[in-house]
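Input record, target 12 of the design panel.
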């Protein structure tokens, strides 16, 4: 290659930012209550940290790893403001619980770069999370105050004046990811303490059959049309079953399976041989009356 005497250009080497700070919860921050910090995943650092970071060749957005060396716990966060007192940082209370910290404990803060998130899975820590109508939309809105997600962290989100805790089960493509300007797929595991409802098989309404009302009064060889009892179309039990007994004249007159071989197909026969007992009795009374009347008439003629 041709050298025209210009000095070779080199990119400045990246240097890491590493500092130790006393850690306090957001409630210890002087001034008004900062709900935006408590309900998010960003920290507040001193102005000296901003001065050092601007002198270094760091990647943006500024992301940090916070480590509790005594408890060997670590998490990741972004930065919201540089207004803390020198030597102090203020972090959300849920982050202090994950790091097993008390007020004023010493932590190590160092900057780093994280891959952009493409997938995450959360496990709600309470069954009350099921009361939310659209949990994905609620989580998407709450994660706008977060910068990173770390597997194993229990994050806290606020919705309808209530705090919900979610355990980060899985993140892709790494164990810690940034969620700033990303397209991330979200899934939920069953909440802690959730029990699947027992599936009870659907029982069909079976009509109870009362054998007492099904007793037939005819033999198998005798024919009786429409014998038996009525039943409902929906299959439910009839409250008051109607007793059905075959008329005695049908049992005496017809026998199933014996046709009338002498029947003339060109004639219509109307069987009037049967008469109810009441009609027979009335006819006998009328006949006796008629005989008595005839006898009296004969006596008069004589």
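The sequence produced for target 12 reads:
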């Amino acid at each position: 290659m041709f050298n025209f005497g210009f000095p070779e250009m080199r990119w400045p080497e990246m240097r890491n930012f590493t500092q130790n700070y006393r850690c306090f919860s957001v409630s210890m921050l002087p001034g008004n209550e900062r709900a935006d910090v408590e309900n998010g995943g960003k920290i507040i650092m001193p102005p000296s940290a901003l001065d050092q970071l601007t002198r270094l060749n760091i990647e943006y957005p500024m992301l940090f790893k916070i480590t509790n060396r005594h408890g060997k716990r670590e998490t990741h966060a972004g930065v919201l403001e540089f207004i803390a007192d020198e030597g102090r940082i203020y972090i959300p209370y849920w982050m202090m619980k994950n790091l097993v910290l008390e007020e004023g404990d010493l932590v190590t803060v160092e900057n780093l770069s994280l891959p952009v998130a493409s997938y995450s899975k959360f496990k709600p820590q309470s069954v009350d999370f099921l009361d939310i109508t659209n949990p994905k939309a609620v989580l998407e809105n709450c994660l706008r105050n977060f910068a990173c997600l770390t597997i194993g962290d229990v994050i806290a989100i606020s919705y309808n004046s209530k705090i919900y805790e979610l355990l980060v089960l899985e993140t892709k493509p790494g164990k810690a990811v940034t969620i700033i300007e990303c397209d991330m797929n979200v899934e939920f595991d069953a909440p802690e303490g959730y029990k699947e409802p027992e599936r009870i098989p659907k029982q069909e309404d079976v009509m109870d059959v009362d054998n007492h009302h099904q007793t037939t009064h005819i033999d198998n060889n005798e024919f009786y049309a429409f014998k038996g009892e009525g039943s409902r179309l929906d299959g439910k039990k009839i409250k008051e079953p109607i007793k059905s007994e075959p008329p005695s004249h049908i049992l005496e007159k017809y026998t199933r399976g014996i046709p009338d071989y002498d029947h003339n197909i060109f004639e219509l026969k109307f069987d009037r041989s049967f008469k109810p007992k009441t009609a027979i009795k009335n006819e006998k009374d009328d006949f006796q009356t008629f005989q008595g009347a005839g006898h009296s008439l004969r006596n008069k003629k004589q």
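The chain is about 20% helix and 25% strand.
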